[in-house]
Write a structure and sequence with these properties.
The complex is a heterodimer.
Chain A lengths: L2 E3 L6 E3 L23 H8 L11 E3 L5 H10 L4 E6 L2 E7 H7 L23 E2 L4 H11 L3 E6 L2 E7 H14 L1
Parallel strand pairs in A: 3-4, 6-7
Antiparallel strand pairs in A: 1-2, 4-5, 7-8
Chain B lengths: L24 E3 L4 H10 L4 E6 L2 E7 H9 L8 H4 L1 E2 L4 E2 L4 H11 L3 E5 L5 E6 H11 L3 H4 L14
Parallel strand pairs in B: 1-2, 5-6
Antiparallel strand pairs in B: 2-3, 3-4, 6-7
Chain lengths: 173, 156
Amino acid sequence: MTRIICPDCGHENLAGADECVRCHQPLTQEETFVPQNELERSVAYDRIGRLDIRDPVCVSPETPVGEVLRRMVAARTGCALVMEGTQLVGIFTERDALLRLSLDRAEWENRPVRDFMTTPVETLELEDRMAFAIHRMAVGGYRHIPILSDGQVVGVVSVREVFRHLTRLLEQD
Amino acid sequence: MASLLNTFNISREPVARLATSPVVSVTRGVPLRTVLELMRDQKLGAVTVCDRGQTVGIFTERDALRCLAEATDLETPIGDVASPGPVTVEKKDSLAEAISRMSYRGYRHLPLVDDDGQVVGMVDAINIIQWLVEHFPRAVYTLPPTPDVLIEREGP
């Protein structure tokens, strides 16, 4: 389901809503939007699926956090998705490693990642627009957002993929 | 007609317009343990590493992850585990230039230097993302879901 963000309060509304269900500001278009270049068009209209979505590092809730760290480093990625079967149950990022793990590694090395992960996880859909991903990163301070399609995880989008995309577009203009 | 152009020209907008984070610098002999504690306490994504007044490296949360994963000795001097010769930006560089430098190697932090080459701030990718969102016009969020079907002309 496509969603639209309220420009006033940031609430996510279902597409087609005439006003924001939270702040009641109108969501209808008062002006015609004419993108002036490829970058403007892409940010406004392109779906997240246009980004190079990366294969995530997936671990189980019982995976020892020491092993999760090593897998993240090996995959050169800043996050791991914690999966129970095909269900996404948590996310563990390099920021969590810095903020939640003590300097005494004996305290955490063999403990399950479920004790340190963030849950529930904020996700977006492949069909959501690029502007949406950028908005979510800005508001939540998220560097990594898992992407779903038909309820299944298909990858992760990070600030890096957004910037690569913007750079490609700038080089075209 | 509403265009993004007036508010959203990242090729012209200078990095100086960003709300950057203050930079925290440590000397290269400081032990890893102290730097990790500092980054945790102050919630820093990166610190610069200096030697005799010159910035010689950067140590980011990505480097911290590697040190934790590899069980690096916590007494190691930070200069030995930091990334040397960080890519920087100047205040007059455009946002587009900063974005391009970040995407080149996947960097998320660029020290901001003044005309004398002194580091005066830290540009975090999230600062740029937040600038973009603040400068998106309302229209970006309230567009009709399918844009590509509008041009349908009657036949001659």
